[in-house]
Amino acid sequence: MTIGKLDAVTIDCADPLALARFWAAVFGTEVASAEGAGPTYVDLRPAPGVPTLRFQRVPEPKTVKNRLHLDVAVTDLEEARAGAEALGATRVSPGTFDEFGYRWVVMADPEGNEFCLVLPPEEAGDG
Amino acid sequence: MTIGKLDAVTIDCADPLALARFWAAVFGTEVASAEGAGPTYVDLRPAPGVPTLRFQRVPEPKTVKNRLHLDVAVTDLEEARAGAEALGATRVSPGTFDEFGYRWVVMADPEGNEFCLVLPPEEAGDG
Description:
Chain A has about 130 residues and is of the alpha+beta class. The first copy, chain A, has helices at about 15-25, 75-85, 120-125, and strands at about 5-15, 30-35, 40-45, 55, 70-75, 90, 95-100, 100-110, 115-120. Chain A has 2 domains: about 10-60, Roll (2,3-Dihydroxybiphenyl 1,2-Dioxygenase, domain 1); about 70-125, Roll (2,3-Dihydroxybiphenyl 1,2-Dioxygenase, domain 1). The longest helix of chain A has 12 residues, at about 15-25. The first copy, chain A, is globular, with a radius of gyration of 15 Å. Strand 1 of chain A pairs antiparallel with strand 5 (about 70-75) of chain B, so a sheet runs across the interface.
């Protein structure tokens, strides 16, 4: 028995609209809905292969490494890192990881949520 | 500039294969890849609207409420709750939430990762 479909991946944060704009730029999508000027929930419009990302205002700060994170597939790791940093991301891992054919760096979004920029095997094999 | 595409939503866990099987049942998909008998990474086959879910073995346990969680859209909240519990989920919220047209309950997967069973506005409006 299937329980359901994915409605959204929801991300707790302090500033939903600002964080939504960062991730919209990462995936080339846009803010789809936000109620009012200081919204509790902000949804991004789903993009091909990207489900709805939902940003939810919460009072508590981030304290530990997230148990869930997004892996972002890119075609050029250095270019993607520079682009993400220009949008407000920071680098978490000093180096680059290579495992199971993947090559990746660990980054953090403007609220410190870890994510990986990933060169999948078919791309990493070219490097 | 778009940085990349979503490669996967990755979930830290103690037992990737067991947790992957739980989530495969939730979304009606299946384990796509796992290396060996005690794999570090297990990927689920993406389903319509569901990106690749990747389960990654980590040594550290879950300590606080996750900052990222999955919202699972269902058509019958009680039936979905019972079905998820039969698969090994537990209920986190004693009651049901109603906000912005959504109705939902907070659950936890077998490793304690919070997720919501969500009746979207078009369904909740019927109830």
